[in-house]
Design goal:
Order of helices and strands: HHHHHHHHHHHHHHHHHHH
Number of strands: 0
Radius of gyration: 24 Å
Shape: elongated
Number of helices: 19
Length: 405
């Protein structure tokens, strides 16, 4: 019964395009109660069947404009429900403000200061690896959460703080993942999804969820990655600007690619096409969040080339990768090493072991001083693939040199 009620609350909420926080406010209003005796987390528990809202049921029905019987009646879904981000929220609420706050009064100046630090950390990640940034990044995140939980602030300042915490978790989660701390990254990403949803910023929630889906897809959790990438797109696309939709679809394409199989390969190519279409709708008059500054046609070509490489289509992958690398900023050492690793694999698939060895040599040189688990993993993959041509002199020399290190 509880699961039926929860499913109906979610269905009716989504039909009205309400957030869980909006439902909580409307239920309190229907009950004639001041303050927030019901919060977003409680609504989430109802929807997930973790708690049955017995005494609240009449007020929920009033808030949603239906009868109690409608809430109790099981619904036969016409088709499998779309995945949503609600299932990926943390079990508890680590962002819940303390009942007795001892911190100072927080205004928009503190929000602006946090926004500048978040952007600075994002720019630092463009040129530094996760192993170099993880400690200061975690300090920034803990400080931001403490500021929100312990400080006193208006509801609008609180919402803007949550948005900045969401942006911060996306980049800190990315840094942790790059450093190979995948469990920590997952915890951070889930915190960020919660923060963005509480701030009612669905575009940001989709971006954070897409980053976690990308990690899942790359760490042996391909089915979870595909489900979450689709949920990120489905939950946010109605209000997402073109750049955000393009990014979501890029991650859907990658998730399909990593999931494997002919059908997923076709779905990956379809998502890439839709990503290009979405980006084409961007214009000078279109507003996009500043954290999407890096999403452009070049980044879509990068993903397209990687998908072709994973699908073992080197005739498509090699020209695209060469084009991307010819235009890429050489100061971004980690990304250069990563993209060259894809080119090396594509050249192996194209039966060009000599050139693959040359490219792999560049990968090894660039990644030697980069504290990134992602580049280290790509090096391992490239060396394993080159073993197929161990008798080729150029490959043998590279492998021998690697053994001597």
């Amino acid at each position: 019964m509880g699961s039926d009620i929860g499913a109906n609350i979610r269905r009716l909420r989504e039909e009205r395009e309400w957030s869980q926080a909006r439902v909580a406010r409307e239920v309190c209003r229907a009950a004639g109660l001041a303050g927030d005796p019901v919060g977003r987390q409680e609504v989430s528990r109802w929807e997930n069947g973790k708690r049955t809202p017995r005494e609240w049921l009449p007020f929920i029905a009033t808030a949603l404009g239906v009868t109690v019987e409608v809430l109790r009646t099981p619904q036969e879904p016409a088709e499998p429900p779309l995945p949503t981000l609600a299932d990926f929220l943390p079990e508890d609420d680590p962002l819940s403000p303390l009942e007795r706050r001892k911190g100072r009064r927080i205004g928009m100046g503190a929000v602006d200061d946090l926004q500048q630090r978040v952007h600075g950390l994002r720019l630092a990640d463009d040129v530094l690896a996760g192993g170099d940034l993880i400690r200061p990044a975690l300090r920034e995140l803990r400080s931001a959460v403490r500021l929100y939980r312990e400080g006193t602030h208006s509801s609008e300042v609180g919402r803007q703080l949550l948005r900045q915490i969401g942006e911060l978790t996306q980049i800190v989660g990315w840094i942790a993942s790059d450093a190979g701390q995948h469990k920590e990254a997952e915890r951070i990403y889930r915190l960020g999804i919660s923060a963005a949803r509480q701030a009612e910023d669905h575009t940001l929630a989709g971006n954070i969820a897409g980053s976690l889906a990308y990690q899942f897809s790359n760490t042996g959790r391909e089915s979870e990655g595909l489900r979450l990438a689709q949920a990120a797109f489905n939950d946010a696309r109605a209000e997402a600007p073109p750049k955000a939709r393009a990014l979501y679809l890029d991650r859907v394409a990658w998730a399909h690619t990593k999931a494997g199989g002919a059908e997923n390969g076709q779905q990956a190519m379809r998502a890439l096409g839709e990503a290009g279409q979405a980006l084409s709708e961007d214009s000078d008059g279109t507003e996009s969040p500043t954290y999407l500054y890096w999403v452009d046609a070049g980044e879509l070509r990068v993903m397209e080339s990687r998908v072709y490489t994973e699908l073992h289509r080197p005739l498509r992958a090699v020209p695209l990768l060469r084009e991307v690398l010819s235009e890429y900023d050489a100061t971004h050492t980690r990304e250069m090493a990563l993209y060259l690793s894809w080119l090396a694999i594509a050249l192996v698939d194209a039966n060009e072991p000599e050139e693959a060895a040359t490219v792999a040599g560049r990968v090894l040189t660039l990644s030697a001083d980069v504290a990134s688990e992602r580049t280290a993993e790509r090096v391992r993959i490239v060396l394993v693939r080159l073993q197929e041509y161990a008798e080729v002199p150029e490959v043998a020399a590279l492998l021998d040199e690697r053994e001597a290190v």
